Amino acid sequence: MSWTDPVVKSLSEKYGRELQLLSVDPVGGGSINDTFRLTTTKGEFFIKKNSVSRFPEMFEKEVQGLEILRNADELPV
C-alpha cells in the first residue's frame, strides 16, 4: 500500500465520490516535511507528510497556529 492510498480514500469520503489519483509531484521548500502536489479527478491538493515518531503532534500544533491566524482576521487563511 502506498502512502497516497489513505489520502485518496479520505478525499473521496470528504467529497462523497471516488477520486482517482492522476499524479504525485514533489514540491520544494521546507526541511522537516515532505511536500507534494496531488492531482486528482477532483483537482489539485497540497500534501505535507512527515514522521510522527520524529515530530509528534506537529500537525496538531500547526492547526492551532493556523486557527490563531484565521481568528486574527488580518489575511485569508
List keywords for this structure.
single chain, 77 residues, three-stranded antiparallel sheet
Assess the beta-strand content as a share of residues.
Answer: 25-35%
Overall geometry: globular
User: Structural class from helices and strands?
Assistant: alpha+beta
Number of strands: 3
Order of helices and strands: HEEEH
**Helical percent range?**
25-40%
Note the gap between the termini: 33 Å
Largest sheet entry: 3 strands, antiparallel
TL;DR?
With 77 residues, this protein is an alpha+beta fold. It is 35% helix and 27% strand.
Describe the structure.
With 77 residues, this protein is of the alpha+beta class. It contains two helices and three strands, in the order αβββα. The chain has a three-stranded antiparallel sheet with strand order 1-2-3, with no helix packed on it. Strand 2 and strand 3 (43-49) form a beta hairpin. The chain is globular.
Layout: helices, strands, pairs:
Blueprint: H1 4-15, E1 21-27, E2 34-40, E3 43-49, H2 58-72
Antiparallel strand pairs: 1-2, 2-3
